[in-house]
Specification:
This protein is mainly beta and about 280 residues long. Helix content is about 5%, strand content about 40%.
């Protein structure tokens, strides 16, 4: 099922963003998972506060979500946004799902729906200031999950989470004009039956507690590659898998962090797409 943002392309936005009630957890996480620690709630979407290994307490904190959560209409197939000021309300959550802090003025450092569906917000607040307010960031992994890895997907928007085992990655994932690379399979029947509002939710490794991806779309039926995402393998074979949801790679973000610990597309080896021209 496409998550908020993508689902609005093919159906009424209210069906995704306005839920009448939360549902029971598909696969409850253990207490050691700290459930909603580091998660965030945005308008219609979820997100997470993340830090990369070199970050210091005095550095500006970073929130990530999907690129398709940044605006409506959505970003174009090859569109990349960089360094834009936005007035965005983001609620940062505690472990029990309560709101620890609300931030409003943010700097959109990056957003794109090409290769990986990702947006990077830099806050005015530092990690130390967030810690003083009861917010603990999640660590950002330097590699994505492997087939058979156990993961959980906490949604700050819904205050619920799913858990399952990944079934590998997809060479290319297509939906309408968008094209994502090395997408992460999240089998709905195994516990990852995510729904609208999970857009931008972190995919967290149960083994390490690190963010290894970000949920963004899935199967809802209908037209192949239009109403539902479809997979393309390295031989060019295209299939649409029933009961499969997907997430996108986030470790590419760590390749764009320079010696000064700041995000920049000019960092040597940065894998994220740059603006055209």
């Amino acid at each position: 099922m496409p998550l908020p943002g993508l689902r609005r392309v093919v159906a009424a936005v209210a069906l995704l963003l306005a839920g009448v009630s939360s549902v029971a957890l598909a696969a409850p996480a253990s207490a050691a998972d700290d459930r909603f620690t580091g998660t965030a709630r945005l308008p219609g979407c979820s997100g997470s506060v993340v830090r990369w290994a070199p970050a210091r307490p005095t550095d500006p904190a970073v929130v990530i979500t999907n690129g398709h959560c940044v605006r409506s209409p959505f970003l174009g197939a090859r569109e990349v946004l960089v360094d834009q000021r936005q007035w965005r309300r983001i609620e940062l959550l505690e472990a029990d799902g309560g709101v620890a802090l609300t931030v409003r003025g943010v700097h959109l450092r990056y957003a794109s729906m090409y290769r990986t569906d990702l947006a990077v917000y830099e806050l005015r607040e530092t990690y130390a200031e967030l810690a003083a307010g009861g917010v603990t960031p999640l660590e950002l992994a330097v590699e994505g999950p492997s087939r058979g890895d156990r993961i959980r997907i906490p949604s700050g928007y819904w205050g619920e989470q799913r858990a399952c085992t990944t079934t590998g990655t997809v060479h290319r994932l297509h939906e309408r004009a968008w094209d994502w690379w090395d997408s992460i399979r999240l089998p709905a029947r195994d516990g990852c039956a995510i729904r609208g509002g999970y857009s931008g939710s972190p995919i967290v490794s149960r083994a390490t507690g690190e963010v290894v991806g970000i949920a963004n779309t899935g199967y809802v039926g209908g037209r192949r590659c239009i109403d539902s995402a479809c997979e393309e393998d390295r031989r060019g074979t295209v299939v649409m898998r029933k009961d499969m949801n997907y997430g996108q790679q986030t470790w590419w973000l760590t390749t764009c962090v320079g010696a000064d610990r700041r995000f920049s597309l000019e960092t040597p080896g940065c894998r994220l797409a740059r603006p055209r021209g």
